[in-house]
Amino acid sequence: MSKNNSAPVNAKNNGVPRHIAIIMDGNGRWATKRFMPRFAGHAKGVKTINKVVNACIDRGVEYLTLFAFSSENWRRPPDEVSLLMQLFRKVLIGEIKQMGERNIRLKVVGDLSKFDKDLQTMVHNAESETAANTGLTLTICANYGGRWDIVNACNKLVASGVKQEDITEEQLSANLAMAYAPDPDMLIRTGGEARVSNFLLWQLAYSEYYFTDTFWPDFDGKALDEAIESFQKRERRFGKTSEQIRAQ
Ligand code: IPE
Ligand code: IPE
Ligand code: MG
Q1: Can 73 be counted among the known catalytic residues?
Q2: Which pLDDT value is given to residue 5?
């Protein structure tokens, strides 16, 4: 078993998950329901990110990973893609100071080579400016796909000259984009769909899934608490029996 798959729930912190991953879905439908352009939903969604980041810090979550733009989202109308890129820029510029104040370490994972050069530079600067922060590790997945991540890890292994017989789950995990984090304890998806949409395919192998109909712009600290409550009622067995888990 890979070391990451056995990442324990944060026992020191009342069973609050150490690592929460979120598929922030439903921005477009939130806006359409209000006869607003889809972009208004994305803009409101950014405000929700702020709220949820603060709520995670207050509750002692160590890693928060947000799916912001998938490898497949390039298929959207060019106007929407370019508005999303603009929003990403705005967030990087606007939030960086606050990240320092809130002791947040920012990571951006995904195939950044497809982004404009200036955006790539902004991402690298934001990451290095926050690299020494010791609070919440906030990961934004941008142009990210779980399949891309696994193929990328395989390519890195091949390039490192590793022998076929030495390829293990640990080695592959260590070459994934989020090798610095334990696997998510909980996956939350807002917006009513019950699918993974090519998010962290490898890393979600033993995560607890929580789906809610709430659109991302309406998600908040209270909604997060409901998700955490549901998580705390579950028994994570990792292949063992209930009796074994209770005897631990
Ligand atoms: C999620 O909201 C944000 C991104 C994928 C960028 P959507 O834009 O997918 O919203 P819906 O699913 O169309 O409502
Ligand atoms: C998943 O949402 C990607 C993000 C939230 C960034 P989508 O809205 O793109 O997913 P599908 O297409 O409905 O599966
Ligand atoms: Mg969607």
Answers
A1: yes
A2: 41
Considering the entire predicted model, what is its pTM? 0.95
pLDDT on residue 179: 98
Which ligand places an atom closest to the C-alpha of 197? 2
Per the CB < 8 A criterion, the answer to whether 44 and 219 are in contact is no
pLDDT at 94: 87
Q: Give the CA angle between residues 20, 134, 145 to the nearest 5°.
A: 40
- Beta carbons of 138 and 50 less than 8 angstroms apart: no
Q: Which residues of the chain have pLDDT under 50?
A: 1-8
Q: Which atom of ligand 2 is nearest to the CA of 191?
A: 8
- Is residue 118 part of the annotated active site? The answer reads no
* Assigned token pair, 120: 């790539």
**Closest to 202 (Cα-Cα) out of 240, 136, 143, 153:** 153
Q: Which helix (H) or strand (E) holds 92?
A: helix 78-101
Quick one: pLDDT at residue 12? 56
Domains of the chain (ranges; CATH) run 15-147+184-233 (3.40.1180.10)
Q: Please tell me the predicted confidence (pLDDT) of residue 14.
A: 76
Burial of residue 215, with CB atoms counted within 10 A of its CB: 0-12 exposed, 13-18 middle, 19 or more buried? buried
